[in-house]
Amino acid sequence: MTDFLTVDDLHAGYGDVRVLHGVSLRVGAGDICAILGPNGAGKTTLLRALCGMVKGRGEVRLDGTSLAGRSPDAVARRGVAHVPEGRGTFVPLTVEENLKLGAFARRDRAAVQSDLERVYGYFPVLYERVGQVAGSLSGGEQQMLAIGRALMSRPRLLLLDEPSLGLAPLVTRELFGIVRSINEEERTTVVVVEQNAHLALGIAGQAHVLESGRIVLSGSAADIKADEQVAQSYLGYRI
Fold first, then answer.
1. Number of helices and strands (H, E) in the chain?
2. Do the Cβ atoms of 191 and 33 come closer than 8 Å?
3. CA pair distance 207, 33, nearest whole angstrom
4. Which residue from 4, 33, 71, 222 has the highest number of Cβ atoms inside 10 Å of its Cβ?
5. Cα within 13 Å of Cα(12), Cβ side
6. CB-count exposure of residue 93 (10 Å: 0-12, 13-18, 19+)
7. What DSSP string runs through 93-137?
8. Under a CB-based contact definition with an 8 Å cutoff, are residues 59 and 68 in contact?
9. Do the bridges between strand 32-36 and strand 214-220 make them parallel or antiparallel, or are there none, so unpaired?
């Protein structure tokens, strides 16, 4: 599979605090890549560096185009959508107003309505809540809204940061099933940071394990999931 996202020797952090130390990885076009590791490993910082929120040193290329040094707005215009940890919905606005904000940079206004319908197809509960303010939604519904808003930009690369955070197991499984459907139907490349390693590895094609800002393990998600020693040492569960 063709490399779509290429990261080479990426260093990033906050002020004088270095968090990422020479991260390199490849993600194929249309693949789902899981980024795993303990708290404080640098997973969120990696996503922030990929979308331009955190400045770094090194190379990030999307489909052959360098994203290094670009602002978050410029990265978004290249087709990258970031769903941050904590969802980041606009709580005073309605569901539909939140979704339309995801299309603010688009010029093809005639297609926005059809994309709204597409998002409602993935998340029927959002259609049922279309006029409700986002702050009145459950945690799972707010996470669906955040992903739906990201889809409204028609991303080529979708970055998901801890989508299961604070959600019930049943809701989490439903959400991950929808992410897999989006990947399969839209061919959207997905990079997902997730503490629930077992679930993330279940939908991913490949995975990378971060520890102290460095990638310590890379491989197919199936191989990593099946390796008992890896699961116990890095992922915090037993097979």
1. 10, 10
2. yes
3. 5
4. 33
5. 27
6. middle
7. SBHHHHHHHTTTT-S-HHHHHHHHHHHHHH-HHHHHTTTSBGGGS
8. yes
9. unpaired
What CATH code is carried by the domain that includes residue 167?
3.40.50.300
Domain count, the chain: 1
* H or E stretch at 217: strand 214-220
Retrieve residue 134's tokens. Answer: 């986002």
Q: Which of 12, 5, 9, 10 is nearest to 55 (CA)?
A: 12
- Show the CA angle centred on residue 139, arms to residues 142 and 196, nearest 5°: 105
| Contact call for residues 61 and 5 (beta carbons, < 8 A) | yes
Which candidate, 157, 158, 133, places its Cα nearest to that of 145?
Answer: 133
Distances in Å between the alpha carbon of 59 and those of 6, 22, 24, 125? 8, 10, 9, 40
The single residue listed with the structure tokens 């809540």 is 129
Cβ(23)–Cβ(7) under 8 Å? yes
Q: Which domain holds residue 108?
A: 3-235
Structure tokens at 87: 């969802």
Instruction: Choose among 194, 169, 184: nearest CA to 46.
Output: 194
